Amino acid sequence: MNRTTPPPPPTVLLRGGEVHSPADPFATAMVVERGHVAWVGSEGAADAFADGVDEVVHLEGALVTPAFVDAHVHATGTGLALTGLDLSEATSLEEALDRVAAHARTRAGDRVLLGHGWDASRWPGGRPPTRAELDRATGGRPLYLSRIDVHSAQVTTALLDLVPHAATLRGHHPEAPLTADAHHAVRAAAYGAVTPALREEAQRTALAHAASRGIGQVHECGGPEISDEEDFTGLLRLAEEGNGPRVVGYWAEAVAGERDAERVRALGARGAAGDLFADGALGSHTACLHTPYEDGASGHRGTPYLDAEAVAEHVTACTEAGLQAGFHAIGDAALGAVVAGFRAAAEKTGLERVRALRHRVEHAEMLDADAIAAFAELGLTASVQPAFDALWGGEDGMYAARLGVERARTLNPFAALLRAGVPLALGSDAPVTPLDPWGAVRAAAFHHTPEHRVSVRAAFTAHTRGGWRAAGRDDAGTLVPGAPADYAVWRTGALVVQAPDDRVARWSTDPRSGTPGLPDLTPGGPLPECLVTVVGGREVFRAGA
């Protein structure tokens, strides 16, 4: 069967707005041709292009920026949360149980009920639902209910009956939420009940929602402990239709040699990276720490999944195969194992070979100065989620409850990473936090801990060009001639060059520096509204369409 070659995207002149471009900090117009930026410049010069284009777009003062890149998502889970049971806004255990019961009544035909997003740390009493409470709320039906960080879940008795071996696995608890291997087993059973049609609907919903937020590319973090191969390859096929954001896939499976590397490539993955778990998450008490949790069982330090030797084996095999590697690591002990493993791999393969592949670490929350220096030395990209701090940071937040205030203040040190020369790529980990790129930029610029704040400009760059660079592309993520025409059009207020902290260099805030302006993201104010998103010169979202 021959596929029809789609017509080339139109040649478009955009004019009468504000174009965020390093090629011309005062640009008001842009020409897009054959899916790439052809010209950026002033309104007066735009007249010369008006007769030679297929379409002229009058921006009426709107802002044009590069489309965002969300460097860490789980598309199916995001779509299911958007269309189904999402408890992230539940303010109490009682409200959560009421929502579960209502969902069960409306989904009478589902083999397994799926829900996401509960966070007992924000509820009065701080207690998650018990298995018995969920049994009553669902009428005894199978239910998988993941915590907001997706590293633990509470389930009903009926779901456990479908996975009897889960009771023998690490992380099984008679009443408390499941973690580790037991959690992975019940999650596989729950998502195995999702029909292909429902899965595709969820993926389309997630990609359409991303486009509506000005996101032109997402990095899907799949793997055998998260989804399955059909889920992963189905999403990549869906993205090939070209009706939404680009999808860069990462498959989190350990590689021991060239044969494993080829299998990862055959799936369509950019690398054997993403959520290859070195540990779990702080909210679920599974992030692996050097010092015990403040509010956990006596002496509990989390759950290690990989040691330095396993990390080194994976990085060495990937490096020798020319494949990008990466890990999920949050706790300081897990990050220590990851750094030690990368160093051992560099000693074996050569430091420059390791650096050249831009291996990456997801989340990278509990980094000390030595670990940050090692990231810089090894050329590692930190794929980070500023919304984590916005949601859980501060002296009264979940981080402080888990770690104590002093340790919590060290988390997510974005400024120190940038000062050391560590590349940042920003993302959401959706459905853990929403697809909200301007919110992420705001969260990085107004971090709960002032010394970790970065300028809006730096955070914006990490959420646009940084995502492209994390996937190996240096020629994209900015609106300059020759770059892919991935851009978004925004309704916003006055543009400023914003440094929210006196420690940020003041020269960059002076309009005479020629630095392009960005929206004012001061907390409490409105965020920009996406009007249009374009990927490769093709419109993938229009407000009101």
TrEMBL record:
This is Amidohydrolase. GO terms for molecular function: hydrolase activity. It comes from Streptomyces evansiae. Keywords: Hydrolase. Residues 55-541 form the Amidohydrolase domain. Its EC number is 3.5.-.-. Pfam families: Amidohydro_3. Residues 506-525 are annotated as: Disordered. Residues 514-525 have a biased composition (Low complexity).
